[in-house]
Amino acid sequence: MLALDLFVNGLIIGLYYALMAVGLAMIFGILKIVNFAHGEFYMIGAYTYTLIALGLGVPPWLALPAAALAGALIGWATERWLMRPLYTGYGSWGLMKDEYAVVVTFGLSLLLINLFDKVIGPYPMRGPALWDASRISIGPFMMSGQKLITAAVAIVLMVVLALFIKRSLWGRQIQAVAQNRLGASISGIDTARASSIVFMASGVLAAIAGALLAPVINPAPDVGIFPAVKSYVIVVIGGMGSIPGSIIAALLLGVLESFGAVYLSYDYRDTYGLVLLILILLLRPQGLFGERAREV
Amino acid sequence: MSARQHPNLHTSKLRSEFLLSLAILGLLAVAPALIQSNYWLGVLIVSMYFAMMACGWNLLAGYAGQFSLAPAAFAMLGGYSTGLLAYHLDAPLWIGLPMAIIIPGLVGLVLGRIVLRLSGAYLALTTLSFAEILRLVIYNSIDFTRGDQGLNVPELYDGRIGNYYIFLAALTLIVGLIYWLLRRPAGRFLQAIRDDEIGAASRGIDVLRYKTIAFIISCAICGFAGGLYGAFARLVSPELGLIAQTGLVIAMVVIGGMGTLAGPLIGAMLVYTASELLRDVGGIQMIVFAALVIIFARFFREGLWGLLRRAVVRRVTNRGTP
Hints:
Chain A is mainly α. Chain A has helices at 2-31, 38-55, 60-83, 85-88, 90-93, 97-119, 145-167, 169-179, 181-186, 191-217, 225-238, 243-263, 271-283; strands at residues 136-138, 141-143. Chain A is built from 13 helices and two strands, in the order ααααααββααααααα.
């Protein structure tokens, strides 16, 4: 019985991770770069939700879309002001693409952390819960209302995202740009808009993850660092740029941590991801679902 | 102007950068005669600690094009190598300090061997995860490392001036080592890998081997810096490995000039001194540096030293042509 309970709890943790990791995988898919400020998108979501709900007295259900909006805005701004030089002057930037992306997004992460630390203060706050029920039993499982809602919202968002990418015109354009940016732009696809949409979607997902977890994590300026580290591990395990791969890797890591925390050691539960990462890099460096990169 | 003296020629560019580095180190050597205050000597010692890490990170990122996000974590590892040996085995510093080079170097060898087979963002991702998780492990292993209370380390040298010159000697040694490496074929190989990894491999350069060598040296330099710092402060704590510390190192290199020999030295001295001054203004130092990192990476890729050099070169060439 305990094993089943741990399994379900692990899946729910995995769903939080997936919300973060999917955005990161999408950005890698389309721009071939890693956004090191991803944890700060999460932090901004958590703060927006908490400050609006507590400061303005708005019901939490309305604060959630506000957090999503803040995530979309920061994603849009990052793409517009910092990422666009990556592909507008593509030829001349080609060689130092990774270098520029790592330095600039890492700089952005530091900037946002310290800006929030200065403006709002370093003290953690406590976000309001969406559903303030501590114990709800569903069949044999007991869980808190917030957890249940988070899981539901995460699943809905993931389904919407999948439909958007598979079915909608913009989603197909995004797929085309991810496959071949030059080819897509020759076929008349606005590649800048596709990148912009991807960054906004990734900002929304991270911000909603932050908002949903606000009652648990107690927003503080550096709260995004660990979720971001987890999602870096996940995107490598799932195969860089693979969205289904990152969802499955996220669930896998969630379950692994949930079991490890009980059967191995609670204090070191955050190290299992690193061990898994090293194993994957040794045995299957392209990740679980990644294709081996073709080198021209 | 003859071809050998052209400012863009690798050797003459490197030599002029080395001479500038020596001038900066010389300035540091006479600084204690001018600065009486113990506080500012301490500031200079810490900025030399950061300069060592900046030089190590610059060798890896600026010259070999491999981005590690763990310089501070390796400094923490170096500090804890000396600290744990002293705490558990009563090892003196002449054993502890070499271990602060060897243990981070070995960890770098294992990690580099695994990760550097892949190119692109893998190293940055893995080192960042490694850095945060290592800090967490040290923080949580209270029985072994005393957690966030930190460990006491034997004293490096009694008296601030003595410590100052030990740090200066170590920094000079590191700058000399990097200059020596860059003048050898290995240095050219690293830059070839940075500019075009596949091209370098096609010309017969063992890419994995040279990337790993650069990573090991960089880790060992950071570890040594951490070991020295721990012995100077007489304390190592998980705070040494904070992401913000890595951010400070990267800010120094990017602002000073990435891929140049003198850039990290200029950057480390300016940034750390400025951070002491800005702290009094209201703790806005990290906001300023993070913004500067973005601006420099976006618009002035060669940093302050590159801007300076370009201005000098423009004057010289203008004078040369009629």
